[in-house]
Amino acid sequence: MPVFLETERLVLRPFTDDDVDHLFALDNDPDVMRFINGGRPTSRDTIRARTLPRLLHDHACLGTRGYWAAEEKPTATFLGWFEFRPLDEHSRAVVELGYRLNKTAWGKGYATEGARALIGKGFTDLGVERVTANTMAVNTRSRRVMEKAGLSFLRDFTGDWPDAIEGSEHGEVEYELTRTDWEQRR
How many Cα neighbours within 13 Å face the side chain of 86? Predict the structure, then answer.
């Protein structure tokens, strides 16, 4: 299978149709999905019909996909995924960074390691000018990953979500990193 990006401990590769079981397990862990949908389960049909097509989508402006399966390098164990996709389908200028990892991968630095590698690739190889990331204000672990990856707090905001989940009353936060700031910190 082709590799998109490698770090010291991770391999980021394109998703395939064979990843349905991995995604089903990931999206059905209530702790993993707590800040996404309140921990509600996702059906296998939804994974096949909605989730996987989104993860397989190629973004012509980047010349690549926007979502990557994350595997532990020595064992090829599926850990979850990383998102690095353009906000505008026709422009590579601004991309959104995201990640969703299995609980077994939490607290080991994988999210920060993968995020930093994607940011570096985006600024050096993909022509990205700005990286943005969002999470619920109460999601302190994800906020810490954003900070460790080099992003800075930009703003608080309130999303218009059809189904409120626990913690959503505190709103959301956006973080960002520009190419200029990234280059100055290197």
Answer: 20
Extended beta strands in the chain, E state: 5-6, 10-13, 58-59, 64-65, 67-72, 78-88, 91-101, 130-136, 152-157, 172-178
| The two structure tokens encoding residue 156 | 């608080």
Question: Could you report the per-residue pLDDT of 56-85, keeping only the tens digit for each?
Answer: 999 999 999 999 999 999 999 999 999 999
Report the alpha-carbon distance of residue 140 to residue 79 in Å, rounded. Answer: 20
Residue 79 has φ and ψ, to the nearest 5°, of -105, -25
103 contacts 31 by C-beta, under 8 angstroms: yes
Distance of alpha carbon 157 from alpha carbon 179, whole angstroms: 24
Whether 55 contacts 81, CB under 8 Å: yes
Query: 119 and 106 in contact (C-beta within 8 Å)?
Result: no
Task: Express each pLDDT in 133-181 by its tens digit.
Answer: 999 999 999 999 999 999 999 999 987 777 778 888 889 999 999 999 9
Secondary structure of residue 120 in the 3-state scheme: helix
Cβ neighbours of residue 151 closer than 8 Å, sequence gap 6 or more: 97, 131, 132, 133, 175, 176, 177
